# Entry
Amino acid sequence: MFVIVPVLAAGVEEPPISGSGVVELPELEAPAEDPPELEPPAEDPPELEPPAEDPPELEPPAEDPPELEPPTEDPPELEVADVEPPVLDAGLEDPPI
# Structure
């Protein structure tokens, strides 16, 4: 079950309720004065000054890295051995006929 409770803003009077179920709302009043317009700042913001010293430049490395040389010998060829795979025996025998 839900209960609806009307909440009124501070300083607002409850509108009168007529018997026909129509709620009459009070008319809103316009503000007496227009809001003041925002004025631009009198002074320009100070400009950022460049740094006093230039950042140090990166120096190249003293020596060039050694270049990789190709291998002088070919790698040995791998040989495939003629080996039969082992027979796995789980201890099972053929069933008698």
